[in-house]
Structure formats: C-alpha cells, structure tokens
Amino acid sequence: MSPLLRITDLVLETGPAAAPVRPVSHVGFEVAHGEAFGLVGESGSGKSLTLRAVIGLLPEGVRQAGGTLELERDGAMRPYRFAEVRGRGIGMVFQEPMTALNPTMRVGDLVTAGPRARYGWSRRAARSRAVDLLAEVGMPDPKAQARMWPHQLSGGLRQRVMIAMALATEPSVLLCDEPTTALDVAVQDQILRLLHRIRTERGLSIVFVTHDLGVVRRLCDRVAVMYAGQVVETGRVEEVFTRPTHPYSAGLLRSMPTQDTPRDRPLAAIPGGQPGAGDRPEGCRFAPRCGHALPACAGLAHVLAAVPGSPSRSACIRVADLGGPPLDREALLSPLPGGTA
Ligand SMILES: Nc1ncnc2c1ncn2[C@@H]1O[C@H](COP(=O)(O)OP(=O)(O)OP(=O)(O)O)[C@@H](O)[C@H]1O
Q1: What pLDDT digit, counting tens, does each position of 167-206 carry?
Q2: How many Å apart are CA 53 and CA 70, to the nearest integer?
Q3: What is the pTM of this model?
Q4: Fewer CB within 10 A of the terminal residue: the chain, N end or C end?
Q5: Is residue 274 part of a domain?
Q6: Which range marks the domain in which residue 237 is found?
Q7: How many structural domains compose the chain?
Q8: Which residues are in coiled coils (predicted)?
C-alpha cells in the first residue's frame, strides 16, 4: 500500500530551553492509504503527545523541537507544517468527549462548525450535512439529536458526535486517542465496530493510540511499540504479536490477557518501571529492565533497524538472541469474544 502520512524524527520538549526534558525523542512512523495503525505502550511512553503533535495541538508546556510531516496529495508526498493539517486532511477523536465538545453549542452546530466557517456553508446546508453525518455514525434519531446539547447525550453518543465532527472535514486520516477508554465495555465495542465500519466504507486511514493490545489485535494492520518516548519496534500486527523483535514488546505481549486467561491469574509483568521523561538512562532506555541486556546496550544510540529474517524493524541489537518460549500465536491472534469489529 502506498504511504499517506509520514512523520519523521519528531522531538517534543518540556522544561527550560537550556535544560529541556524530552518526553518524545525522534519518533517516526508511516501510515498507508486505508490502513489502521496502532501506537501502543505503557502510560507515559509518549503516545498521546505524539498524536497531538501531528495536528499541532500540544498541551501547554510541551513544545516541538524537531520533526517533519508529509501527507500524500495528488500522488506525491508533500511536506506540511504540523498544525496545518488539522481539519485539512487529518481529523482527531479524543478520549473524553465531554471535555472536547463545546457545551454551549447544539450537537448539529458542533458537528459542522469547522467546515461551515471555512467553506461558508449556509445554516440550512450545514444542518442537513450534520444530520447526514450523525446518521453515518449511527445516531438513532439524528434529526432530533442534532438539536440537543452535548450534556443530554450518553458517553457513547457523545463519542459518536466527536467522530461525526472529525468526519465533517472529510479527512483522509483519523487520529484516535484512546477513543473508548472512558466508556463502559459494551459501548466500547460499539464504538470500535463503528470506527472499523467507517474506515472500510470511506477507505480512511486510522491511527489508534491505545494501551489496549486487544484493540490493536482486533483493528490494526500495523503497530509501533513505544517505550520511554521512543519507538522500539514496528511491523505488521500478526508479526509483532507472534514474533516480537524487541524484549519490551515481548514482555508487553506476555503480560497481555487472552480470552483463556483465568481472571484471577496474575499477569507476567516486566520487572521495574518505565523511567520518567526527565530520568532516562543513557543508551537503550529499556536495558535496566531487560533480561537480555549486555553492558554495550548502555552505550547504544537508538536506531530502529531492519531485522534479518523478519519484516519488522527493531531497536534491539540482541534481536537474534532473544529466544524465550514462543508466544502462543493462536491465543494472541484469535478473535476476541464478541467477534471481529
Ligand atoms: N503538559 C505537559 N507538560 C509537561 N510534561 C508533559 C505534559 N504532558 C505530558 N508530559 C510528559 O510526557 C510524558 C508522555 O505523555 P503522554 O500523554 O504522551 O503519554 P501516553 O503514553 O499517552 O500515556 P497515557 O496513556 O497515560 O496518556 C508524560 O509522562 C509526561 O512526562
């Protein structure tokens, strides 16, 4: 598949310019046309900041110190400034719809506010478009719901409104930051199915930020695993999930529950904790927690390189010696209860 979005060498900084801390260092990834791409990793690994940087919506206190963005237009990859693509090719769905939706606007006006201002749509045209979009995202009574206020809707319906808002600008890429985390399990499933349907029907590319490997297994074609502000491995989901090429990804996958995992069984955890943004070791940042680390790992520059015999790319120099018991391919790739989205 041909590339649609390419991020290269993204660096984000916080703190004083003279002594900056880098929560995201030299992160890059590429998303193809129509592809679902997952960005996974523990809390604090830099997933959300990376996604927000793509549309130039960094929280206060975080600044971009490097990185390029390219988006495909008319058959060629073209460079853009990060904020420039927000609502112009790239849409975003946030984790918490209540804080992301303006409470003083009716749902129908919210959905089309962006394109209406930009393209000068009439009120009538905007309303009709809003109702169509609300129907597309599965609102049960789109005409009536277009007249409601966000607080009158359930969490699941609010998330549908946010997806409709993102679609209103006709993006080619939808960025989703933990789009189901704030919802209860049954509603999570409905939203994941909706995103899958929209992706298929519109031929959209989707980037999912999630700590839930089940979501990645179920919806994504390719994945990047982040650790302490860097991508440590990237590849096709079925490869990374069954033949991980970085000890951190292997540990993360071993700690992932499958449908056969008894509820009361403790998960095999990776010993130790992820270092904070201001507290990162030299060389391989995972080395202090890694059972395969050599003294040399502490002096290594971070390079995501091709792995002999694997289609994945990995930052681990010990990839050939990883060994360990093979991961249970069937358990890791079997459909989740409730079926495929
Ligand atoms: N507004 C901010 N100011 C300063 N530092 C920040 C800010 N937001 C995030 N950080 C730093 O960046 C790190 C990465 O944050 P980010 O939200 O991207 O992590 P994440 O992987 O998405 O985790 P989570 O799943 O918990 O959101 C944080 O651990 C924190 O050190």
Answers
A1: 999 999 999 999 888 788 888 899 999 999 999 999 999 9
A2: 13
A3: 0.89
A4: N
A5: no
A6: 225-257+283-333
A7: 2
A8: none
